[in-house]
Amino acid sequence: MICLRFKISNSFYGLDCTDIIEVVPRIGMTAIVGAPDYVPGYFNYRGKIVPVADVSMLVAGQAAPERLSSRIAIVRFGAERCLGLLLEGATEVIVVDDAAITTAQSSGILTEADFMGRIIVAGGETMQLIKVMELLPEEVRNTVFMG
Fold it and tell me: Rounded to two decimals, what is the model's pTM?
């Protein structure tokens, strides 16, 4: 598996690159009325309106800092939709040995966040995978996606 590695505070997280369409610089967004704090807005991506979720806000309760290393990963969100993921420190793509994924043991840490995946070791660092399709609860999907 190839992952886009990013960080939140001092911890590393990863997105499977097969979910990613493109990584773009952080840009200005238009707010979505009624959306939760972790959805700072939407922007026009190649003629499509794409809502953005701030993964730092979801995981740690703090907005991703405005740095050059903060990027938006445009990901497939279902068959026809795109979602932007605002990520801190999204500057490195790493190869994760498939054996590390299939043999990864449960961390034993319980969380209510359905979008948090396995904790693996990659390049000597621990990294927790994010499950893209689990990021937005149904009520938020209904708010941010039109139709």
Answer: 0.86
